[in-house]
Protein 1
Amino acid sequence: MFKGNLFILTVLVGLSSWFNSPTVLAAEFNSPKLNDLLHGGLQSKGPVNFTKFFDQDSTQKFCSELKPVVSSDEAKRLMSENLKGIKFLEDGAYIGDWARGELIAQSGKGLRFNDSENTKNGGNCYACHQIQKEELAHGTLGPSLYRYGEIRGYSDEVIRYTWTKIFNPQALLICSNMPRYGHNKILSISEMRDVMALLLDPESPVNQ
Ligand code: HEC
């Protein structure tokens, strides 16, 4: 009895690892049948646009490979391409209003099926980051940003780095999981300034 169960278990484990093997997954992703199913099943609605999902840019294509080599020359080329698209501010006024920045960081609105085209996008930063310590409902996919300026300082380099990160994280880490707020126009320049203030204004509660 025991031996029989063990045999079935071995066969099941073997089968499941075969189904999950990169060759099988690659074959499935390239299959026209799967493509038809995805195209038929995923319907664009409101601000959710699946054309973009299927029509990936070069960075997305690279990061959708089964094993993207993030140290490759192609990765470096794509990062510098992303870097070129970053809009740095001529007036150097990167620090807006931290209180407005907190509202943006808290808001997960926008770009969802039930939003309209006019819904104001939030940054949803708390979904992935700790920021103010009073907010306990935060995700942990990204590093904690609590005491961000206090720890890293307020130098021009830190400001430029943080702006780059918020504008287009893939310019510094090719397959970063963080959204490209400036690149994809999720937030406006002035909203990104406010989020910058939340992290980098010495008066912001984040740095107290
Ligand atoms: C979907 C998850 C996700 C969301 C939403 C997100 N981030 Fe991130 N963030 C990450 C991850 C993952 C990293 C670490 C990898 C990297 O550096 O790209 C990161 C890194 C960062 C860094 C660099 C931290 C360091 O110590 O160098 C900053 C700054 C940052 N995020 C700010 C923000 C802000 C501001 C928002 C909202 C406007 C935001 N993030 C929204 C996932 C996210």
Note: Residues 11-24 have pLDDT under 50 and may be disordered.
Protein 2
Amino acid sequence: MKTTVIFPKYSKKELPEKFKKDDNRFPEDYVEYFINKYTKKGDIVLDIFAGLGTTLFVAEKMDRIPFGIEIVEERYQFIKKNLKNEANIIHGDALKLLEYDIPKCDFCFGSPPFMGKNDPENPFTAYQEEGSYQQYIKDFQKIFSQLKEVMKPNSIIAVDVANLKNERGEVTTLAWDVGKSISEVLHFLGEIVIIWEGRESETVNGRSEPWRVEGTWGYGYDHNYCLLYQNK
Ligand SMILES: C[S@@+](CC[C@H](N)C(=O)[O-])C[C@H]1O[C@@H](n2cnc3c(N)ncnc32)[C@H](O)[C@@H]1O
């Protein structure tokens, strides 16, 4: 398998105005690539950080059965309204994964909410409560150890994550820290470097501005990592 893959950093699906200022979706082509690689028609695809639903919509379009969890009510409603399998999106918290009625899944793909090392808010509460980077990194283990029960034996779990560089050049080694934390509960297979091509603009405070690799929004890098784990 190639360990670097290039994707255009564009989403094809138009969003309602209210979501445009906070559009952190990943491109449909990226999801499609991994769904093709790890699943067949009829398989169950899970995204525990469903966001604005990209994994679920692409999975459904590819004749897979989507399941997802999203903590923010209005994002959940958006997915529910646009998904044929509307009962399969759960308004909930990935930290409580085992409380939900989810069948054994064939593939899990998603991107968690990100945190810089000095940020004050806890991403897993949709930034509504205070938190610490140390606790956030530990919480990945709580979440991903529950996935061991939800996923079929030997199935693949793919986690999209990036290191972060802010305007002052400070780096949060988020990808390394998340990668190591999850490796303690799931078998790590390795990483695929995802190179974003052709991105010309980014949304800053609701405005479209030229893409700044050194910017705070965007991740300060023009590549991400897709960390691959196996449930064994
Ligand atoms: C990076 S976004 C995912 C975007 C998604 N991949 C897409 O393309 O639309 C992360 C999502 O995780 C959600 N989230 C944050 N904490 C959560 C939690 N504890 N349980 C479930 N979802 C959570 C956020 O509200 C956000 O929508």
Note: Residues 213-217 have pLDDT under 50 and may be disordered.
Protein 3
Amino acid sequence: MINTLISNILPFMPEKLVWLFSKDYIAGETIEQAIVNALQLNSDGMMTTIDVLGECISTLEEADANKKEYLEVIAKSEAAGVNGNYSLKPTFFGLLIDPEVAYNHIREVVAKAASYRNFVRIDMEDSPCTDLSIDLLRRIKEEFPENIGLVFQAYLKRTHNDLHNLSDLNSKEIPLNFRICKGIYNESPEIAYKQYENINKHFLEDVEYMFQQKMYPAIATHDKNVVNGTLELVKKYKVSKNMYEFQMLYGVTPALRKSLVDDGHRMRVYVPFGKQWFGYCTRRLKENPKMAGVIIKAIFKKS
Ligand SMILES: Cc1cc2nc3c(=O)[nH]c(=O)nc-3n(C[C@H](O)[C@H](O)[C@H](O)COP(=O)(O)OP(=O)(O)OC[C@H]3O[C@@H](n4cnc5c(N)ncnc54)[C@H](O)[C@@H]3O)c2cc1C
């Protein structure tokens, strides 16, 4: 109750106060800070995917500035030798203003990553973006087959079909690299499963389909049940450890993360950074009110 209440009033609290709740979940305001944290994760045996915080924009000038920021992030991260790739949200590049402009920007970002033989993943946003994001993947993959991936959301009823429809792009040489997650947006029950058990069931069915098709799934979850279900599928299909990875958000469930790393599974941490940390954190805290309680305890212990 109290956690939910706190999570709901967070967006109205002063930034400095929210920062106290949030600083463990973002990797800093600058790319330099994010790189330090990413290198630390690397030395603890994990890969990273760096994300510049920020979602909705209202002008194409902002889209252009965001592209320039990503190009700089890639150059700096590669120069620092970070073992990690990049994640981006297409609306950050103007997807809902002008999809062609967004395509050109994202193509340029992928080209930059490809010049270092690296990889960019298109995060999946809410349902008006789904088809547009799949189109982006198809177009960019033609030119950069090894350097681009996408995300699918297990809560969407369409996801299994989407995976099936894209399987023509899969090959032994270049397996499709898709992140599968539960999905974070508030979608209507017409298009999305709503119950925990149902979402988990479809999550594991999607992972199973990807194993059957010999795709490369990135299993993005902090849910022990989904992790254990995935490990059973790994055994069932005798999937080698270089054919999948787990992914978790920076600062979330570090014990579960470590246990997977200790058992030799690939782990990639999503490293969000940037000046727009406030929106990201209030959303994360609202998504998981339990977290507010954990953070409050930590604050009381410190004082
Ligand atoms: C690497 C990564 C990338 C993602 N990319 C996308 C994306 O592109 N599009 C999209 O829609 N969604 C994305 N998500 C979010 C995802 O869809 C879920 O909303 C989120 O991960 C919570 O679901 P869960 O699988 O962790 O399980 P849940 O059922 O939410 O949680 C299970 C347990 O995990 C722990 N836990 C879960 N979340 C948190 C948290 N935030 N803080 C603290 N503890 C937590 C709690 O102990 C909880 O009881 C991503 C998630 C990850 C990990």
Note: The chain has one domain: 27-273.
